[in-house]
Amino acid sequence: MAIVYDTYQREAPARLPLLNVADADRVLAWRGGKAVSAAQFLAQVRAVAARLPAAAAAVNLCEDRYAFLVAFCAIVLRGQTNLLPSSRAPQAVDEVMSAYPGCYALGDLNLSVAPPGYRQLPPLDTLSIEAMEAHDAWPLISADHVVAIGYTSGSTGTPSANRKTWGSFHASNAGNLAMLHAVVGERFDVVATVPPQHMYGMELSVVLPLLGDVGVHAGRPFFPADVAAALASVPAPRVLVTTPVHLRALVDSGIALPPIAAMVSATAPMPVELATAAEQRFGAPLQEVFGSTETCVFASRRPTVDEDWLLYDGVTLHPQPDGTMVDAPQLSAPIGLADIVSLSDGGRRFRLRGRHADMLEIAGKRASLADLTRRLLAIPGVLDGVVIQLADGDTLGVHRIAALAVAPGLDEHTILDALRTAIDPVFLPRPLRLVDALPRNETGKLPRADLLALLGHHHG
Fold this sequence. Notes:
By secondary structure, this protein is of the alpha/beta class. The protein is 28% helix and 26% strand. Helix 2 (38-49) packs across helix 3 (65-77), helix 5 (166-184) packs across helix 6 (199-211) and helix 8 crosses helix 9. The radius of gyration is 23 Å and the shape is globular.
């Protein structure tokens, strides 16, 4: 049974369950084609927790989603915090570990180059599954215990740390669970293409199976055939948690998927054309969710039906000149986002008007980077692309707008000529560079530093 409350600081019980234990035999995960019960899972969590060193925090580097789940809960059970770098690149891991002296790293792989204090999980299948009667009570976690510190992707600058308490995850999960219950019913199984370390992946593939009657596939399938195989290995109703980049690859592949009940997307705006193609191709509704690492998910919509977003229960937005203040059950205080919105339906719905940082004003004319990128992607032959604004300190010259495009068979002049028919000439990107691929991370986002580096390389 999931616990739902409106404001966790004021009304939450002091301790909250580590996982939904309405039925100890319920399937929490699917691993290697076999079901893992909540009781089996918790026994493995206890066995791993007993082996962990004394520390305040640990970097959770597990690749396998089930191993991540076990490690996540074992770290929490030891009273520690999961550190979730924006990337598992050695530099990103080192930067996080240096900010938390005395922490260690925990993973499921034998790394040839491992961070200091790295510990490898024991093979989970070899852990003795003790009789659950040996533990009279299922574990409860303090609502104000910081169970995770997640980092933003760096798509708008330097990654920043965001603390998540167990109470806040209980509160945010209530909204996601209610949204999915309305679409697919009470019980379903999830296959996710996003990493569990990312906050979207954390919410929809880690917290959701812990606190809802949900099973999750242990893997993180990448290629379309792998996604199809993963979906076939779990029972219906199936929910695919993915991103626009992964979904486009699935649609373009022409592969057949087992029947799915719903698709969920986040991390980047979902083009209506892609949502329509996916729904027609796979015969399931696509739900797009809205949130951030700072706030977690707080709204959803079906883009083929609604342009407006529907807020989760208990969430209110307060538009500001330079963005929006978000007040939600999972937040101890309102948080400001750069997104500019307009409210409707008595404040229950909103329409996204852009981001303050994305708004451009040149020669008295206005445009948004998101719209310029959309127009670039609409050019026939452009497979991927992005338009960015260069800051005064960037080393690429005096041009304010630049673009990168993946467009085999086209040249830069052809693309610029096509853009001239769609946008005001003052917003034409200079430089526009053709590249083989954009530096997208695991969730499809584009770290700004990587874009600038790619532009600088081509500029040189």
